[in-house]
Each structure stands twice: as C-alpha cells, then as structure tokens.
Amino acid sequence: LLPRLLERLAEVLCSLVKSSFLVEKQPPQVLKTQTKFQASVRFLLGPRLLQAPAKPYAVRADMVTEKQARELAPSAASRPLRAAHNVVALETNPTSATCCANFKNVLLKKIKRCERKGSESVTEEKCAVLFSTTVVLAPSNLTVQLQVLSLPIVVIVHGNQDNNAKATVLWDNAFSEIDRVPFVVAERVPWEKMCDTLNLKFMAEVQTTKGLLKEHYFFLAQKIFNDHSASPEDFQSRSVSWAQFNKEILPGRGFTFWQWFDGVLDLTKRCLKSYWSDRLIVGFISKQYVCKLLSTEPDGTFLLRFSDSEIGGVTIAHVIRGQDG
User: How far apart are CA 132 and CA 314, in angstroms?
Assistant: First the structure.
C-alpha cells in the first residue's frame, strides 16, 4: 500500500506544481515579425519548492503551431520560432517571494506557415508561445518538466494584415471555451453574444462608458445579415458566422463587416470620443431612417452617422427646404 500511496502523492504533487506555472504577462496577440515583444512567466510554488541549483534554471520560449500546441510535445526540429533572446533565467526574488522569468525583448525573426485548409487566410492561423523549463524540487529531488502556453497569437508580416488579425483574436477571445483543444472555437455564435462582444470592444477601444444601444444593434444586425425586413426580435434568435463577421464582403462594398466596424472604432477613438460620450452622435443608423427622422425637423437640423460606403468615414445629413417646400 505504501509504495502505491507514495506514487499517487508524487503524481498529485506533480500536477499541482505544473499548474502553478503561469503566464503572468501575455505576449501581444497580434505579433509582427521583426518586432520586439515582452512576456513573463511565474512559478507560484518556486520560492517554496525549488532547490538552489548551481546555475539558474532557464525558461525557454518557443513559437508553436496549433497542431503542436495540441500535441504539446513539440520536437526541437519542428519549432518554427526563429527568435533571439528566447531563453531567460528563472529568478527567485526573496524580498517579494516571487519566482519569475522575464522576457524583455524577444524578437520573432520569421514565421514558418502551416498548410491551410481551403479558403483560410494567414491571418486566421493561430500560434502560441510555449514556455518550458525543467526543475528539481526540494527535498525529494523530483524532476518536473514545466510547460505553459500563451493565449493564441496571430503572426503578421505587414501592417495591412493587422485589421484581419485583430478579428481572429477578437473572435477567439470572445467565443472560445475555457477547457478546449487548442485553439478550437465555434464557427457560429448567437447574435446576442456578438452584440455583447461588439459593445465591450467598442467601449474598451474608444475608452468610453457609453456603450451601444438597442437601436444600434438593430442597425448592425441589418448590416451583417443583409436583411432589412426583419424586426429586432427576429434577429434575437439568429446566429452569426465567422464568415459573415470577417470573410464575406458586404453587398456592393469592398470590405467585410469587421473591417467596416473597426474603421468606426478608429474614427470614434481619434475624432469623436467626446461627442459619442455625450450621446451627440447617433452613428449607427441607416440612410432611410435618417431621411424619415429629419423630414419633420426645421431647416438647419443635421445628423452625423457612420458612412456606409467609406471605412472610417462620417456622413452628415442636414435639412434645407427648397422654394417648393
């Protein structure tokens, strides 16, 4: 019985130790090659359990593909991270009783792409940084391999990919389950969940406490579903796909729903933040509805809305009555 108990104890201890190795500062989730980035990992049980080694334990950071993240035993040969400064000492600070490895300027030199499925673009490909080290625990001399994955990362090589990469990251952060196979995420989500996500993103990006309203969601639903006959209630029960969000071009336009929405975020953040926060802009409203609203207003009344045809543009509608009324 005793040997079995000891074995079980070692297993439980290993499991506890492994789960106390965490990413404290995540790498950027949209990462451009040839750009330095920072990250840090923390070993919560380090100050209590680590033996004082002759030379410090080293933590290694490797970029792994989605497939490698699933297998979580990436062989050194297939590591696609071509990075400088990707090995750092795991240091214990007696004053703060912390045990951390701080990666101050890791540089991803280039990325080796995977084979893609069908119409997948490079900005839909997710990787992650795998942090790993091997430590010896005191007093039992137990050797444990510690591994932890960062959040998913989309690697880009050019600034013009940034917008699509942000869409992949937003969808993954918003709709992935906590205990999932890396990095599986639903292809379709309820429209209500999408509304919450767009609202949180809008408030965070623009840095305002004034979020989206029911009428804004109605306009956004008409746009993403290309349906002007449904009622707000009809949209409640629908679900929206990743393709509708950022793959299919909006009818008669040269951009996707997300590309348009991201332009609105950027515009509001840069130029219209105070007006939006004071509720002086309707913004998300259709041309037809604007005409209806303004038709009964006095001359000189005007209304600002986000342009339908230009990314990050504003359309101003105003009332001028002709001689004929």
Answer: 49
Q: Is 303 helix (H, G, I), strand (E, B) or coil?
A: strand
pLDDT at 77: 40
261 is a domain residue: yes
The CA distance from 136 to 153, in Å, is 31
What's the farthest any 2 CA atoms get from each other in the chain? 101
Give the list of residues 6+ apart from residue 105 with CB closer than 8 angstroms, or none. 36, 37, 38, 85
Residue 75: CATH number of its domain = 2.60.40.630
Same domain? 27 vs 148: yes
Its sign, for the CA torsion 73, 76, 80, 81, is: positive
Distance of CA 320 to the CA centre of its chain: 45
The token pair at 148 is 């932890």
Return phi, psi of residue 191, to 5°.
-60, -35
pLDDT at 56: 86
Q: Is residue 175 part of a domain?
A: no
- Using only C-alpha atoms, the chain has a radius of gyration, in whole angstroms, of 26
As a three-state string, the secondary structure of 143-198 is EEEEEEECCCEEEECCHHHHHHHHHHHHHHHHHCCCCCCCCCCCCEEEHHHHHHHH
pTM over 0.85: yes
Q: In terms of DSSP bridges, do strands 91-93 and 58-65 run parallel, antiparallel, or are they unpaired?
A: unpaired
Q: Are residues 206 and 151 in the same domain?
A: no
Could you tell me the pLDDT band of residue 73, with boundaries at 50, 70 and 90?
Answer: low
One domain for residues 2 and 149 = yes
Domains identified in the chain, total number: 2
- Its domain, for residue 72, covers 1-157
Does the residue 106 lie in any domain? Answer: yes
Measure the CA–CA gap between 29 and 33, rounded to whole angstroms.
12
Label the pairing between strands 30-32 and 154-156: parallel
Query: What is the number of residues in the chain?
Result: 325
Angstrom distance (rounded) from CA 190 to CA 257 = 16
